[in-house]
Amino acid sequence: MTMIFGIPIQALLGQLLVGLINGSFYALLSLGLAVIFGLLRVINFAHGAQYMLGAFVAYLGLQYFGMNFWVALFVTPLIVGLFGAFVERFMLSRLYDLDHLYGLLFTFGLALAVEGTFRWLYGAAGQPYSVPPQLAGGTNLGFMFLPNYRAFVVVASLVVCVATWALIEKTRLGSYLRAATENPTLVQVFGINVPVLLTLTYALGAGLAGFTGVLAAPIYQVSPLMGTNLIIVVFAVVVVGGMGSIMGAIVTGFMLGVAEGLTKVFYPEASNIVIFVIMAIVLLIRPAGLFGKDA
User: Fold this and answer.
1) Helices (H), the chain
2) 110 CB-near residues (< 8 Å, 6+ apart)
3) Which residues cross the membrane (predicted)?
4) Do 230 and 51 form a contact (C-beta atoms < 8 A)?
5) Which of 75, 81, 21 is nearest to 220 (CA)?
6) Is the per-residue pLDDT at 198 higher than 90?
């Protein structure tokens, strides 16, 4: 059996893939946070609740309307995005002229309200959500048995991350979004409806969280606590990548997921804190983050 640093290569490669799968969720969620902060300058503490809401929309759609996974994958981001648009248009937009702390406190309170509502309705226990039949089973890679669904998660995450980056960085709509956050008055002079652009931006970030929730439902049980358990790690990912950096969120999400997976091989006791240790080191060396712009 081939060994690397005294570790069987099968275990090393297996944890590398597990880290890549976890990194897929980190990248998608941190991408949504980066979009909202980068374009709206809002620290969206409700992101974990929106992720949880996406999982519950898929679960309830299956239970009461027979909505299968593939339909949920497209419908759920729209529903969560509409919820996000409502929140931004009628609540969050009223706080833009105030200190950023008010937006943080509002989204934190919103997260508590949404999570509390679902805990009251469904309790803290998780609800099962089956893997779609088309992705059942797995593939024998020689060193591990890779479930087909988890491979799909990695591919879907990469596709959505790259598509979102291209939308914001390479399209006219993306240029309008970026310009509206830098100089909204000038953009309005050209006939662009800035409030609608800001609402669409928040809806996009919320929709990404909802999409991630659907992807996560078959792997993690659908629970009101699922967002709380993950959002702190995701905020650490965003900080390491650079607050508001779209590419930083994507690259750092996958990178830290892999780092976490490899730590489970070499030093399992530190696997739960390695991301926060990396965050502390990065902040000491480069406070703006790996991909962030220095003020």
Assistant:
1) 9-40, 47-65, 69-90, 100-122, 148-170, 172-182, 184-189, 194-216, 226-241, 246-266, 274-285
2) 45, 46, 49, 87, 91
3) 12-35, 68-88, 100-122, 149-168, 189-211, 231-258, 270-289
4) yes
5) 21
6) no
